[in-house]
Structures are given as structure tokens and as C-alpha cells.
Amino acid sequence: MKISKLVEKIPPSGIRVFFDLVLGMKDVISLGVGEPDFITPWNIRERAIYSLEEGYTSYTSNKGLIELRHEISRYLKHKYGLEYDPEEEILVTVGVSEALDLALRAIVNKGDKILIPEPSYVSYGPITTLCGGSPIFIKTSPENGFKITPKDINKFCDIKTKAIILNYPNNPTGTSYSKAELKTISKIALRHGIIMVSDEIYCDLTYTFDHTPFSALPHMKERTIYLNGFSKAYAMTGWRIGYACGPRNIISSMTKIHQYTMMCVPITSQMAALEALKNGEKAVQEMKREYKRRREFVVSRLNEIGLSCHKPEGTFYAFPSIKSSGLSSMEFARELLKKEKVAVVPGTAFGPSGEGHIRISYASSLDRLKEALARIEIFLSKNKVR
Amino acid sequence: MNEILEILEKDARTPPEEIAKMLNMTPKAVKNAIKKLEKDGVVLKYKTIINKELVRDETTDVRALIEVRVTPQKNLGFDHLAERIYQFPEVTSCYLMSGTYDLLVVVEGKSIHTVSNFVAEKLAPMENVRGTVTHFILKKYKEDGDILKQPEKSKRPAISL
Q1: I need a surface site. Which of A51, A127, A132, A133 has the fewest CB within 10 A?
Q2: Which of A37, A293, A345 has the CB atom closest to B23's CB atom?
């Protein structure tokens, strides 16, 4: 059977083979996990169970339960001073993954260019391609703390540039932007008239400064599609629930696609999310404090054993350089797995500019992090002898 | 709460060097801070949490919660009587309560018999004790924040983006 040309255009994932290797091995300490090691706080799980007992098993409105949209609106207002109308400007989605797909499908025409700072989360490029757009990757480097600069954007912007996908705090680098840095980016976006697709799923895990949503910047609300969700902050990855906020014409276009593909997010997840927003903040803060301590520990250990690592502003990832080992990212990850049974993700999984780096997730207990880092240290010393 | 305390409360064996890394301090500063906490009596001691459900042998203790109603004494209130009660080594915890009784006394003993003897011979006859109600603990599920069973294995896949 012939498959679509668009799908054919998407390169197969080179990382899959490595993943299969990890999944086939026993007694591996994995620092390769892109989700919290906490399980969803009990009050949230309990609310979902109770909702099933109460008989909440139906469809909801396409945009999501109105109570949930109200609560999201209140939350964004309270936390960031953002004003989003729950009726018209908020759409509840199956995680940020769906929200991103909808956002791009709603704005991209054939041939439109979408700017993507790299290393980037794996879905941005392929989804852009599926929408008929051209992903333009902008390389960032450790020298700049993996940040894009207004200059970079300027250089890559032309008449066909439709949008930029900014993910901060960033998976895999952990990089985030201060309010002042975001402002300089917003000015360039304004000048070129491009849309900002802002993936802020890790916003609650920002350690160095207070997170600023892109749409909170002057004149940016009307040109930003704000994406957020419950996965990372509330340890709710498996519930698959997130949301998009933006100008009403964008949200209504996204809703059009959503209603024909997804209909609505499972009601159980929506009930759980409602509880998370109402009574989840304390658990979020506790988890954040724990992640922050692990970050300090991991970064300091990495530098100590000779893997230079900038201190990430957010997320639960460190993205150290492995250049001192003389190995490529993929070799490093494969050898480390085989010899010391520690799984990490090669930086190249996030684009060619991730070469020379690995992604280490510190969403693991401190005991396991200690053990894993000790094993990496042994690996490095043996590698040197060889 | 002080972050050092938060770390030690979770794992009292965390070495000062590691705490230093986590909090971006020098090991010396952490050691000094811990010493001060110990000196000030904030950190009383370091103990091990044992799941006694799993060490079922002749040394296993039974535990009872005892509601005690007392007559407060002039000038001394409840404190004096509480002190007389908590000095007994059988008493593992002792609280002054609001509500329908005054003191909640937790007593540990080798058997139901030793605990009832303690109540009958020591506690109940005490001057100013007006009455007691004894509740034996049948099974412990969670104690001081710790769930008393082996944590389940992680259900996360070993790798994901």
C-alpha cells in the first residue's frame, strides 16, 4: 500500500533502535525518562475515582468542561495576571502534544516556514511537515546557554515565516528565559509579524527566576498561542490533558479540528485536572523543591566528574557536554548502557545540534541519581584508560 | 521549615557533603548548621523506622491508645499529671487533647495482658485520673507519614522523550 507523501517525508526515528536496546535490558538505572518519578497526588487520583463512581462517563463540550475552563482562567489570572475568556479563548486538549498539532494545523499554509530553536522537542519538526510547512531549525549552543537571540530570529525571518515555536523551560536543555530576554524576542516577533507558539509545559518547574508567560508581554497576547498542561507540574503524564489559550479566532479554528478528531478530552482526566487546579498547588511546590535540590546535586556532580554542564533554569533535565570523552552522543549513550547499565538520551535525539551532549533526567530518586552518577564516573575513567 | 531539616527528615543518613551540593553551600557550612540544630535541640536524635509488621517474633509489641480523663490540678494544670504518666517507659507518646477526654497516652507492651496490667495498676488508680478507655491497635498501615509496606516498582517505561 502506498502511503502519503507527507508522511513519507518524515524521517524514521533513529533513536528507536537505542530505545529498544534500553527496554530489552534488565537492572538498568534510567536517567532517560521524560516524566516525573512522582505519581499523581492522591487527592487528584481520588477525585477521578469518585467521578467514575458518580457516573461521570459522558462526552463533554468540545472545548472541555466549562468549570475546568473557568478554573484554568482563574489560575492563569491569579498566577500570571493573564486574562483569558473561558468561553472563547481556552481549549482543553489531549496534552500539549495535541494542542501543538492543532495550533500548527490552524495556522500553517503550504510552504510556510516555522522557526524552531534546536535542540528541540522531537515533535515540532514532524508536525510542521505534516501540516505542509517547512521547519527551519535555529541552532543554539551551550556558549549561549542554549538560548536563541533576537539576532538569530532576524537572520532566519523572511516573508514566508509564519511562526516560531518557543519551548521554555526547554526539553532537553533545561534552558529558560527571563522576562527581559523574552521582551527582546517579542519585539523581533512583533517587527516581523510572526506568531508565537509558546510551549510552556515545564513552567512550574522554573528555579532561577519567576516564569513569565509569553502572552503576558506587551502586545503579545494577540499573537501568542499559549500551551500548557498538567503532565509535568502535577505528575499527570498518563492522563493526557493540557490546554491551549489564544485569540478567539485561533481557538475556534483549533476547536474545529479538535471536534472532528478528538471530540473532547476524556471526562475522567478533566475531573482530575479540575481537582489539580483547585487543590494541587502545595504538592507542586513540594515536588519543585525536591527537583531543585536534585538539580543542584546533579549539575555539581556532573561538573565534578568532568562533564561540563550549565545550570539549567528549569525542567528536570540536565544537558551536559560529553565532548571530553571523545565519543559521539550515540556512542556515549550506547556504551554507557552496555558497560555500566545507565540509560541516558543522546543529544542527537533532539536534532543535530544536540551532538556532543546527552540528556539526563533528574526525575529519579536521589539514591538512584547518586548511584547512576557514580557509574558514569567509572565509565569515564575506564574510557580514558582505553 | 529549614531545607536542611527537610532533607534530614526524609533521610537522616544524607552526608553533609551531599546536602551541601543540593543546597549550593559548603560542606563546612552544612556541618555547622547541623551542629547548631543539634545543640539547640531542634534535631533531637536520629532513629531508624522499622516496619515491625515484618519482624513478627516474641519481641513484637502490642500497642494501645488510651483516652485518659483527668481532673486538672490547681496551679499545675495538666502538665504535672502528664509528666507523671509519660515517665513510665511503657508510654511511647503522650498528648494533651481537645474534646471529650484530656490526655491521649500511647502504651506499648509485650502482650495485651501487660498493657492491661499497666492500665489497671498504674494508670487508672492514679490520683486525679477520672477514667480511661483503652483501644488496642490491630494493624498498622501508615505511621508518621510512612506507609508500612514495600514501595511498588515504578510503572514508568525506562525511557521516553
Answers
A1: A132
A2: A293
> Looking at beta carbons, which residues of chain A come within 8 Å of B154?
37
Say if CB A28 and CB A341 are below 8 A apart: yes
Cβ within 8 Å, pair A366-B156: no
C-alpha distance from residue A336 to each of A1, A25, A268, A302, A321 (Å): 40, 13, 41, 15, 15
Among 3.30.70.1060, 3.40.640.10, 3.40.50.980, 3.30.110.170, what is the CATH number of A42-279? Answer: 3.40.640.10
Tens digit of pLDDT for each residue in A276-335?
999 999 999 999 999 999 999 999 999 999 999 999 999 999 999 999 999 999 999 999
- B25 and B68, same domain (yes or no): no
Closest residue by Cα to residue B10 from B144, B158, B153, B159: B144
Domain count, chain B: 2
Q: What is the pTM of this model?
A: 0.90
Strand A342-343 with A29-30, pairing: parallel
ipTM: 0.77
Residue-wise pLDDT for A116-151, tens only, equals 999 999 999 999 999 999 999 999 999 999 999 999
Q: What CATH number does the domain located at A5-40+282-380 have?
A: 3.90.1150.10
